[in-house]
Structures are given as C-alpha cells and as structure tokens.
Amino acid sequence: MKQMTFADAEYAGKRKQTRKELFLIEMDRVVPWKGLIALIEPHYPKGEGGRPSYPLMAMLRVHLMQNWFGYSDPAMEEALYETTILRQFAGLSLERIPDETTILNFRRLLEKHALAAGILAVINGYLGDRGLSLRQGTIVDATLINAPSSTKNKEGKRDPEMHQTKKGQQYYFGSAT
Q: How far, in whole angstroms, is CA 92 from its chain's centroid?
C-alpha cells in the first residue's frame, strides 16, 4: 500500500462531496470499463523500450474526464495536478501525471483507430439499458460583426443571412459568428 500524500490527507478530511465528485462516483459505477478496455487494448502500446507507458485504464479515465468536463490537453494536465478527485478517479498519484503530449497522443490513438465512436456506442449501449444517454454538447460563441446596411450592396437586395440586433443602445446589422 502506498503512503498517503499531504494532498490526499487534506482531501480525506473534507466533509462535503462536490457535484463533480458525485458525478465521478456515479460514472465509476455505471461505465462498462472492461468492455472499453477490451476495445482499446489491441491498439494500445505495450511500453516496450523507453519510458513505461501509463496504465490503459488511467489514460481511458483521463480521456473521458477530459470530454466530460471540457478540458483541453494542457488544462487536463493541470487539473490532474490540482484536483485530488480527478487523480483518484484516474488512479494516478502526484509522482507520475501524464503530460499534455501524452494525453494528446492517447486521443490521436483513439482517432487513428476510430475508437472514439466505439467508446461512445459502448457507453450509450450500457447506459441505454438504464434509461440514460451520454452526448457531446456544443458551445457557440457569438460575436457581432458590422456589415453595410441591408440594401447597400452590389445587387441592392437584402442578405437573408443578415439580421439586426441591439446591444445596449446601439443597433447592429450583420451576422453573428
């Protein structure tokens, strides 16, 4: 058994479980880990020669947390250093945390072998039996762009994709991107 770090000891003394912690406990319980590992294992490097590879389970859990919480590769690395519950969920310790390049390479491995869709299908198949589903969302950042007046263009016609909006006391004609 490994000796508890100061960070782990401090975390163990807290009283309230956060929403993120409750979510990870639930995902740990419902995700079909063995099926996902079996899907990825034939493609995962065995760690022969060079630095030993991270356990496949740890990298899979890091990948899923990255998707669930919307972390970039560098942000996921930092979150693993900063957040005890994320390290515990991944089965990692502060002694050895995957860097952003390792996280990127794992995602590329999944993309190269078209495993990301398979992972989602396995998880949704399992969750579907329980009346649940997991989807990836999209965040849209809208920025106002000024455009010439609606009929002051070459054809003298209104562009159907352009709209008028008001921001504060100022009116804008243009499109949101």
A: 18
Q: Give the separation between CA 7 and CA 98, rounded to whole angstroms.
A: 18
Q: Are 172 and 144 in contact (CB under 8 A)?
A: yes
Distance CA 140, CA 45 (A): 36
Alpha helices in the chain (DSSP H): 6-12, 19-30, 33-40, 56-69, 73-82, 84-90, 100-112, 116-128
**For the chain, how long is the longest CA-to-CA vector?**
77
Record the tokens describing residue 58, joined without a space.
């740890």
Give the pair of three-digit tokens for residue 170: 């100022």
Label residue 129 by pLDDT band (50, 70, 90). Answer: confident
Residues forming a β-bridge with 175: 145
- Using DSSP, state whether 141 is helix, strand or coil: coil
Question: What is residue 6's predicted lDDT score, i.e. its pLDDT?
Answer: 62
pLDDT tens per residue across span 26-67? 889 888 899 899 999 999 988 777 778 899 999 999 999 998
pTM for the whole thing? 0.66
Give the C-alpha separation, 136 to 142, whole Å.
Answer: 20
